[in-house]
Amino acid sequence: MGDAGADQGMTRMAVRAGRAFDGREPMPAGALVLCADGRIVGVEPAAVPVPEGWPVADYPGATVLPGMIDCHVHLCGDSRNGALDRLPGYSDDELDQVIGAALRAQLAAGVTTVRDLGDRRWAVLAWRDRVATGTAGFPAPAIVASGPPVTTRGGHCWHMGGEASQPRELRAAVHERAERGADIVKVMASGGMMTAGTDVLACQYSLDLLRIVVDEAHACGLPVTAHAHGLPAVIQAADAGADGIEHCSCLTERGIDQPAELLKRLAANRTIVCPTMGIAPGAAPPPAVLAMQQRTGTTWAARQAMTGALHQAGVTVVSGVDAGISSGKPHGILALAIADLIAGGIPAPGALATTTSLAAGACGLGDRKGSLRAGYDADLVLVDGDPLTDIAALRAVRAVYLGGRAIQP
Questions:
Q1: Residues 397, 293 share a domain
Q2: Prediction pTM value
Q3: Rounded mean pLDDT of 169-185?
Q4: Does 310 lie in the same domain as 161?
Q5: Residue 301 belongs to a domain
Q6: Are residues 61 and 82 in the same domain?
Q7: What is the C-alpha to C-alpha distance for residues 164 and 292, in angstroms, rounded to an integer?
Q8: Mapping DSSP to helix (H, G, I), strand (E, B) and coil, where does residue 24 land?
């Protein structure tokens, strides 16, 4: 990647590409994106002359789009099998090393914002603040963070430190997140495949307890997203009024079951669903995942089709990988999650929106990220080729800009 605009006195930069996607739809005439003081100040067709005195970086064969957003990561995960089980044994320095490596891998893949939905010892919140104040020590994606997920005693991801089972404990857990400045509350509504002894098909909380989490969070001004694999947990999350559902697998003993009435409710309630697609090529499923697939008869093709059904029903779908939890879910493969959505039947512009404008809205950043629009942060990614006709182009990252400056991930 180049270092356009590296002059310390330079606050203006123009980026021109032969193709463009503005976060919602293609721009047939390409784009000239004018950036000043970290913000986009103008977006014109590529053929428009560059204003006098503005340095320009030209990418005639590339596509420019807003910096991508991964809506479901675990920066504490080292992208190897057993990543979450290792968390309790990390020292603070080791945890920092894992998080730093994760941020670099995400940025190299064109991801300029991540939503972390489960850390250990509030480490990611500390990193969020360092990135925001420019003290991270290297260019890094912006971070939206939940802190440790709220879970039952011995429940899914209990080793992250968010165990709470009784009403008083649940209210205290929510208030702790609010006091520490978390951006969102994550709650484990079902068991998970990466935690031994939990059941992905079963609910972890009663509906009344889940409602306590949601109501308390809303009273604190925080949204709630619920981890839910089993169909009963997805229904329960909808009943409790969760703002978002992670995975939303709708798993049953007979495979994936997406009742039409449930999809209609999710769409009407504007529930944000992150189906956590994307898997590294050739990666063997961890034993627990393989056991779930065998138990339910679920295939990856069925999960792809699940995303298409959500989109067809009008549900707001955003993209996230569940990055960092295993070798099949490493940091930096968000492009593969977008490809899965297209394979499931979501048109390319809609699939790209799940990682740009729609993702920004899910992160509470819809007024400043995810769009090529004046006033928005000048976070850009340029890829060789046209992802609207060949989604594989999304993996050919040519350049990344943070705040209008070309960076070297």
A1: no
A2: 0.96
A3: 98
A4: yes
A5: yes
A6: no
A7: 26
A8: coil
Q: Is residue 3 part of a domain?
A: no
Q: Is residue 159 part of a domain?
A: yes
Q: Are residues 55 and 74 in the same domain?
A: no
271-288 per-position pLDDT tens digit: 999 999 999 999 988 888
C-alpha 372/C-alpha 44 separation (Å) is: 10
Measured over the CA atoms of residue 230, residue 233, residue 238 and residue 241, the dihedral's sign is: negative
pLDDT tens-digit map of 199-243 = 999 999 999 999 999 999 999 999 999 999 999 999 999 999 999
135: number of Cβ within 10 Å: 8
Whether pLDDT at 309 is above 70: yes
Helix runs in 148-299, H state only: 167-180, 207-219, 231-240, 260-268, 287-296
Range of the domain at 390: 12-66+370-406
Q: How does pLDDT run across 107-117, given as a tens digit for each residue?
A: 999 999 999 99
CA distance 165 to 171: 10
Q: Could you tell me if 375 and 357 lie in one domain? A: no
Looking up tokens 């928005």 gives 376
395: amino acid identity, one letter: R
Alpha carbon 7 to chain centroid distance?
33
Residue with tokens 């769009």: 371
Q: What does DSSP assign to residue 99? A: H
